Amino acid sequence: MKHWHEECAVFGVYGDPEAGRMAYLGLYAQQHRGQESTGIVTCKNGKHIHHKGLGLVGEVFPEEELVRLKGEMGIGHCRYSTTGGNALTNTQPLTAQLFNGPVAIAHNGNVVNSDRIRDELKKSGAIFQGTNDTESFLHLIARSPKQDIIECIKEEAIRMDGAYSVVLLTQDKLVAFRDPKGFRPLSIGHRPLDDGGHSVVIASETCAFDLIGAKFVRDIEPGEIFWVDETGEHSVRFATEQKSAFCIFEHVYFSRPDSKVFGIGVYESRKEMGRYLARENPISADMVIPVPDSGVPAAIGYSEESGIPFEFGIIRNHYIGRTFIQPSQSIRSFGVKIKLNPQSELIRGKDVVIVDDSIVRGTTSRKIIALIRAAGARKVHMRIAAPPTKASCYYGVDTPETDQLIANQKSVDEICQFVGADSLAYLSMEGLMSSVQAGERGFCAACFGTPYPTELYLD
Amino acid sequence: MKHWHEECAVFGVYGDPEAGRMAYLGLYAQQHRGQESTGIVTCKNGKHIHHKGLGLVGEVFPEEELVRLKGEMGIGHCRYSTTGGNALTNTQPLTAQLFNGPVAIAHNGNVVNSDRIRDELKKSGAIFQGTNDTESFLHLIARSPKQDIIECIKEEAIRMDGAYSVVLLTQDKLVAFRDPKGFRPLSIGHRPLDDGGHSVVIASETCAFDLIGAKFVRDIEPGEIFWVDETGEHSVRFATEQKSAFCIFEHVYFSRPDSKVFGIGVYESRKEMGRYLARENPISADMVIPVPDSGVPAAIGYSEESGIPFEFGIIRNHYIGRTFIQPSQSIRSFGVKIKLNPQSELIRGKDVVIVDDSIVRGTTSRKIIALIRAAGARKVHMRIAAPPTKASCYYGVDTPETDQLIANQKSVDEICQFVGADSLAYLSMEGLMSSVQAGERGFCAACFGTPYPTELYLD
Amino acid sequence: MKHWHEECAVFGVYGDPEAGRMAYLGLYAQQHRGQESTGIVTCKNGKHIHHKGLGLVGEVFPEEELVRLKGEMGIGHCRYSTTGGNALTNTQPLTAQLFNGPVAIAHNGNVVNSDRIRDELKKSGAIFQGTNDTESFLHLIARSPKQDIIECIKEEAIRMDGAYSVVLLTQDKLVAFRDPKGFRPLSIGHRPLDDGGHSVVIASETCAFDLIGAKFVRDIEPGEIFWVDETGEHSVRFATEQKSAFCIFEHVYFSRPDSKVFGIGVYESRKEMGRYLARENPISADMVIPVPDSGVPAAIGYSEESGIPFEFGIIRNHYIGRTFIQPSQSIRSFGVKIKLNPQSELIRGKDVVIVDDSIVRGTTSRKIIALIRAAGARKVHMRIAAPPTKASCYYGVDTPETDQLIANQKSVDEICQFVGADSLAYLSMEGLMSSVQAGERGFCAACFGTPYPTELYLD
Amino acid sequence: MKHWHEECAVFGVYGDPEAGRMAYLGLYAQQHRGQESTGIVTCKNGKHIHHKGLGLVGEVFPEEELVRLKGEMGIGHCRYSTTGGNALTNTQPLTAQLFNGPVAIAHNGNVVNSDRIRDELKKSGAIFQGTNDTESFLHLIARSPKQDIIECIKEEAIRMDGAYSVVLLTQDKLVAFRDPKGFRPLSIGHRPLDDGGHSVVIASETCAFDLIGAKFVRDIEPGEIFWVDETGEHSVRFATEQKSAFCIFEHVYFSRPDSKVFGIGVYESRKEMGRYLARENPISADMVIPVPDSGVPAAIGYSEESGIPFEFGIIRNHYIGRTFIQPSQSIRSFGVKIKLNPQSELIRGKDVVIVDDSIVRGTTSRKIIALIRAAGARKVHMRIAAPPTKASCYYGVDTPETDQLIANQKSVDEICQFVGADSLAYLSMEGLMSSVQAGERGFCAACFGTPYPTELYLD
Question: Subunits touching B (CB < 8 Å, at least 3 pairs)?
Fold first, then answer.
């Protein structure tokens, strides 16, 4: 069940006869990472062409805009936008005229010392249009004494603390870089061209490569600047190697199951979470039912491990638009029912295991369980394919305040009672880390209660 | 995989303080039956209020229109519209001023002797606005010598041959009736009201009842006229009982899995088709993969019966809009890939069984199999949870011409070769009929090659 | 000042390689006759193609719709639509499938026995979609025993009483006819083509001919049916000659000043009204100011005759859209001021004559005079270039109820006091009739208190 | 005839309970100064709220946006936007977060040393979003060492050379200032409030005051900074007094005739131009006809002085939208005819004087004269109520390149021949200056060939 909002997806392309359309498709495939606004900037003859708007990729870019987005390189962005009327100001990519030409930039993540950097910049006369981190970075580059853009980034990026996977377009280069801890994914691919060569593509998630027929080459390393220009592909580090802090929530919920994130397939890691969950928390039941769509792989894993049959017992209505109109009279559990409908013919009189990826406030889980009971289930066992969610994220995930997280207020037993389940169990931290084959690699699991990997600058 | 277009969904409501909103929700839940146009007519103080438009229910009805649709009774319709600029003319419900007041009408199905009736009516001076069957029926009523609308219907409905599940609204009545063979579903429900009473609702599919919290009461019988007015619920037959011709394709593809159609749950019947398919056509493989979303229940059944693990090996992108823009340069299998992405991490080096509901022209299946092979599968076995599709439907399903149906041109072996599978098998007619618990009840399976249950009037 | 709403403009074209675009332009030029909805139907290879919508001609017809409107003949319509959500149903041209093929029809005017005809038709089983007169006429044709459309019209048109200037399109003919009294204008023109020939065009007003470079040929006669087909132009009478009832208000307010209506230029007739007004009601003043735009020609005539200088003392804002948002706090005379602004630099300390075409309720005139006084005028003399408006129109003009017409409630002196003028005078009926060179020709001046030229069927 | 595009209108308001709506109305009244984009920023509790968009004021601001624009002070802007897809970036007011809070700014005019200022700013690390002058000024303020905004402006404004009438909004002040030569108008008004007090309003043109019921107080002086805050109205000079350079074209064409610009009514000055023109260039003719709407006052003046009757001989169609679709087949003079239609009934066989405000390229005048001849005129004498247009404007008027101005290429006789007139005459420079009562006051008439009042920085 969706209750987390990833902030963004980025995309970049270089040397492609259809750069604008590839950006369009690359964003399309990553639409799940942000549905409120989107933008593309391409570069043709040293000039930037851009189009941005509020809405889905398919709505914001009609054919005539794609025709206008000429050129062989470009970057794009999808955003889960902030509320309010000024949303368009924050829509990325941001574009600017610097002394050495136009620059466009888009990022995924959250810079934790952003306010400090902004304040310093404002004091020295910088003007800010919007409120996002990307704008600060533009100012850092603009003010850098270095003439060369790569040198600028090398010098200035290190001043930012936190999560940032960035794509940047100049008059002649596509640049991409990733924070030293590598919170958010960022991958490189090659798209074969008709002439036997290939274009270079960058994406937050590899599912974007699949759609445009590109091959995954490798991840951009934490602390690496990667760029492409007419002399080829280049790489340099701007930060020394350190313990990584890959976002575990990309595997738990964010990423598409058909993406390969931090070196491992997401569908596989989720199934593995389900298997661990079944081993750690066995129960006797007639069927395992996922909360669609995010709970599906873990439910399959749970079913496989437990031997309890998998059933698609809750049907999701995929025609839900963004402006659904409520009836004024109350219909019980209406808010959930408009999206999910349990199959009473299947469930009636049965003991069911419901598998979901997380419980945030608990109110949605409570409604789902009520629906399943109303559909006639005898017993409802809830299984969560991750540990209890205990802390807010400061690295680019839109989580509620810590005090609204039910796992921060109540014990597992109390949560079980609140959501109305016959039993409730979460996956252990060990099970989670094993599922993503963490091994020596560092993951950020701060949302599940482990220490934050950076200072938070919360004053 | 979607390749059939059901023509319509209907909905009716009587005695509900929020009739307009209930119609909205009832259509919303049935959106899968038609996405091109929709309309609602309510009745307030004997006056009809209507709103129609091209697009999804959520788009056509903004809040201000729902506010305008006052009254305690109403009917609504979703349509898979014909092409061309005149689509709005055919959008239902149709409304008309007759001598005894306003009448609105909406239907699901196709009347096979419609052209004959139209020609007769035109010869006697009737004017037609559009091209749909509903309009003929309006004329039949308008010209009936009977004053009472129920009497009119009783007399005139029998002149129509074919499939029609109809809802009709007058100044003081909600009427519903179903053709004598009952091709299309039509059910009655009761929605509990705050005052302890209930409103009466009519829908093509019972999933509409679930959303609005109504209880399924019974199906309207083939040949039955059912109506509600201030004196209560009434019923009368306009045709003598005969062998039914329930549309088997409602179970194979059309209906939502969480609906109960012709007395049996659709999810259950589809799982049963998968089980029969596994028994009739066993194969050794590493995993069973559904073509989402329609192949899912049958794949689960196949997996259960065969013991081969079920995997969600093809991910569907649910953000596909209706106006997707193609790249001008060719990307292999692009048309399918924009919607479906196989998971290569899962599939690579494996033998897979792909389960789908049908093969129409074979081109889509061919692309899907190519994608799965490109994702690294070793062997691809295709299993279709229905018999070969051999004939066009004349009762309300938008099928290709008979000569474009691959099963009409090629043997199963040839189809297997065409789609590029390692093996291909279809469900038997016996398996299909057992799956829907046909027993003595008649089903129309003309699309699978059994005789058409009515004359076709094709001259 | 605009306070009357003419119902419609019609247009027809035959034998033109760009029939759709000519209809578009012809309606564009006549946009002043109706701004709420518009539609065009063309005919290509015996098939009708249509497009209609709510809004201005320039909004309803984007390029892609004009491209779709192929064919060498067509008709079009602009409408001042009725209120309510069902406006699109009444948008013309109406189209229908009759036994002998498609027919499209559009009209200007109002049929006074329309309700009687409708009732008869409904009793015999006719279905009505909307509420306009055109639909009744379609039914009359559809039910006529005559096979030939011209014969049908000849027989049936005479059953309609009142005002109707009609254009009609079949598979092979453009037909136009005008009621026996000729209330509304309807003219024939020839548009020269590149091949040396010409197309035939029909319009409510001749200004449409000017825009498309057509020459005015003649008016269609009252009681005449005119048609064009592949054998050429034809004419026949369906009614015997009788005293005409040309609408005097076409000259007073409706028609564009650059049109020639009922054989005389509208600008000229209005100037003449101003001259008569000056002769009949002389006054001493510093300047003559028109209420723009309709009062301009009469004010020029008044100035010429009286020798008092003409000044454009009230400036009209032409950017007024249809949805102007009011301030919530009161601004004095705001409703008028948003449209009209008197020039205080010019007016201050002066005696002015304000010339307008009519006073309906008196409230707008009162506001205008208040504005002029606030701008510093010493004396304000109001002169109306027509007699007092005393009765509602039943022939196609949207006038207020008779009891809301101030001239029906108050004497000229009382009106003068109500509107706050220093003096007020109206044109005499004789002056009016002389201005339009009525001579022996009959004009309908029922709105000014002369008898209605037909029965009204008001029961 | 419109062939010049003024760049902008500005508006400001302080202390008004309906500041957002007053800005809306103030822009509405000034819509003639820019129709491509518009924006409003208000301030509520120290926070800025803004809304901008492409289109007319009435289109960009629906009711829900006006409701959102809360607060008692605000500024607004209308713009004749540059071409291209990035137009929204340049839409004003520009908003920014500076160290001491939010600032919004809007301007009318053109800064001639803008590129130099931009280059300097970019070199020192400033980032530019768009291409307009206002943005440079924001940077100058942001980088000023002064903390107080008025001090900043006092220090930095003087660095800009050229034309700028600016309104600026902070958290607690409305500020307005005007360049030292006062090229563009900028006036102060007071709007009476219900509580007996008044709000302060600023506008480019006084017609904005008329609409909202405000009284004109005085012009802001060239080189003056005027501001309002909770302590009242204040004024300070940032430049010493110098010879003014009031834009003469505001009187010739730009401003609305009902505005008072540079101390004199525009309608009056235009009439006076017509009178001078008649005295300087008498001719014998039957009527004087203005090219609507801009030629109207001068034609009235010409008629008065010459005694030749004034006639509204060319009718303008006011329903012209911005996207008019051309017929593919040629219609003679179509482009002009869609807007203007000469009245042949009036003109036929007559000698006419056509009065317009200017001839730019000569092509439009040629078409108008051709239309008038086609309408039957015997002789056509053209009179231009200004001297020949010889040079481009660099102070905010969108004129063609100098080499496209016909008066720069041809003698008056040659122009007369080119446009096809029987005679052609222009107003003298002396006549022009007398008409605006220039006296000792300096006017910029560079477009008519006098020296530019500032350096142009054209390298």
Answer: A, C
Q: Does A432 have pLDDT greater than 70?
A: yes
Looking at the complex, does the CB of residue A139 fall below 8 Å from at least one CB of chain D?
yes
Which stretches of A94-133 are assigned E, i.e. beta strand? 94-98, 101-108
| Chain D CB within 8 Å of residue A149 CB | no
Is the pLDDT at A318 greater than 90? The verdict is: no
For C21, the closest chain D residue by CA position comes to: D327
C243-253: average pLDDT: 96
Q: What percent of chain A has pLDDT over 70?
A: 94
**Other Cβ atoms closer than 10 A to A148:** 10
Nearest CA distance, D153 vs chain C (angstrom): 33
The fold adopted by the segment(s) D268-316+334-438 is Rossmann fold (3.40.50)
- More confident: C315 or A458: C315
D241 touches chain C (CB under 8 A): no
Name the fold adopted by A265-317+332-448: Rossmann fold (3.40.50)
Tens-place pLDDT, residues A335-345:
788 889 999 99
Mutation for C interface: D33, D72, D210, most C CBs within 10 A: D210
Out of A37-41, A174-178, B390-394, D2-6, least confident range: D2-6
Query: In the predicted model, is pLDDT for residue B448 greater than 60?
Result: yes
The domain defined by B260-318+333-448 folds into Rossmann fold (3.40.50)
Of A123, A128, A142, the CB nearest to D125: A142
What is the ipTM score, two decimals? 0.89
**DSSP annotation string for B176-195:** EEE-TT--S--EEEEEE-TT
Of the given ranges (C14-28, C326-340, D334-348), which has the lowest mean pLDDT? C326-340
D67 touches chain C (CB under 8 A): no
Taking the alpha carbons at both ends of chain B, their separation in whole angstroms is: 34
Q: Which residues of B touch C124 (CB under 8 A)?
A: 143
CATH code 3.40.50.2020 region(s) in chain D: 268-316+334-438
Q: What is the mean pLDDT of chain B?
A: 91
Count CB atoms within 10 A of the CB of residue B375: 21
Could you give the residue range(s) of every CATH 3.40.50.2020 domain in chain B?
260-318+333-448
CA dihedral A399, A402, A403, A407 (to 10 degrees): 90
Please, what is the angle between helix C133-143 and helix C114-123, to 10°?
Answer: 50
Which CATH architecture best describes the domain C5-242? 4-Layer Sandwich (3.60)
Averaged pLDDT for residues A407-433: 97
Which residues of chain C are in CATH 3.40.50.2020 domains?
268-317+328-442
Among all residues of chain C, which has the CA nearest to that of D29? Answer: C317
pTM for the structure as a whole: 0.81
Locate CATH 3.60.20.10 in chain C: 5-242
Q: What is the pLDDT of residues D386-423, one digit of tens each?
A: 999 999 999 988 778 888 999 999 999 999 999 999 99
- Give backbone dihedrals phi and psi of A223, rounded to 5 degrees, phi first: 80, 10
User: What is the pLDDT at residue D113?
Assistant: 93
| Interface touch A343/B57, C-beta < 8 Å | no
Taking the CB of residue A298, how many other CB atoms lie within 10 A of it? Answer: 32
Amino acid identity, position B154 = K
Instruction: Identify whether the C-beta of residue B116 lies closer than 8 Å to the C-beta of residue B457.
Output: yes
CA distance C426 to C252: 13
- Contact (CB, 8 A) for D44 and D205: no
Query: In angstroms, rounded to a whole number, what is the distance separating the alpha carbons of residues D397 and C446?
Result: 53
CATH of span C268-317+328-442: 3.40.50.2020
Burial class (CB in 10 A: 0-12, 13-18, 19+), A423: middle
Q: Indicate which of D66, D331, D348, D371 best probes the interface with C, i.e. most C CBs within 10 Å of its own CB.
A: D331
